[in-house]
Amino acid sequence: EALRSTHLRFMMQKVLLFFVFVGCLTVYAEPVHPVWPKSFTAPNTIVAFDEDSVPHVHESIMYYDATITPRGERHDHFGYCYGWGATDNCTILIIGNVYIVKPDLCCIAMSDNAAVPPDWLSGATWLGQEVVAGVKVNHWYSFEHEYWSSVDAPYTGIRYSGPNFKTPRQFTTYHEWQLGDLDPSLFQLPQGVDCSKACP
């Protein structure tokens, strides 16, 4: 009887260790890398720190479309235009080149630069799970860029941090993403305007 009891305790310990091991796998297993939807609109709030470390808080809307050629990425900024106007509205348009578009300016800020592909986080390093803005997220890092995505499909962005034009670091907090087709004209340069010169 004593031998049977000892054997039973041993088997129970093995079962307990098995469930502890499985639990650890559940906690530490790396999740699926997020892939952006093919097209979406994402209103957001940005805190952009300029080269003097002064924060500029402003609203923005991001438009993304991977169904057009070249891929299109558009950022409408309200009340701040990085190095091209501390209080101005402007659009940063990425359509093979990166353009700065304002009522008094249309120029190329960066040549031969495409919008990121939907799987731009495929090689990112997972830093674990956190809670951001009341939402459970996965935290990712890739070449100076940090990204916090929702843990459930379609893995929409909750926050982003990284460098931008004349901005060593900015923090973007996304609001609700709106998935769906976009008007192709959002990714076109203004008509009758020369946008071929480099930005000042």
Which oligomerization state do the chains in this entry correspond to? single chain
Average pLDDT: 88
- Determine Rg (CA atoms, Å): 23 Å
Shape: globular
Give the distance, in angstroms, between the N- and C-terminal Cα atoms. 89 Å
Largest sheet: 12 strands, antiparallel
Structural class, judged by helices and strands? Answer: mainly beta
The counted number of beta strands is 12
Low-confidence stretches: 2-26
- From N to C, what is the helix and strand string? HEEEEEEEEEEEE
Helix content: 10-25%
- Beta-sheet strand percentage? over 45%
Number of helices: 1
Q: What does this entry look like structurally?
A:
This protein has 200 residues and is mostly beta strands. The chain is built from one helix and twelve strands. A hairpin with a 5-residue loop joins strand 1 and strand 2.
List the helices and strands and how they pair.
Blueprint lengths: L1 H27 L10 E11 L5 E11 L6 E7 L11 E5 L1 E7 L2 E9 L11 E8 L2 E8 L2 E6 L6 E8 L2 E8 L3 E2 L21
Antiparallel strand pairs: 1-2, 1-11, 1-12, 2-3, 3-4, 4-5, 5-6, 7-8, 8-9, 9-10, 10-11
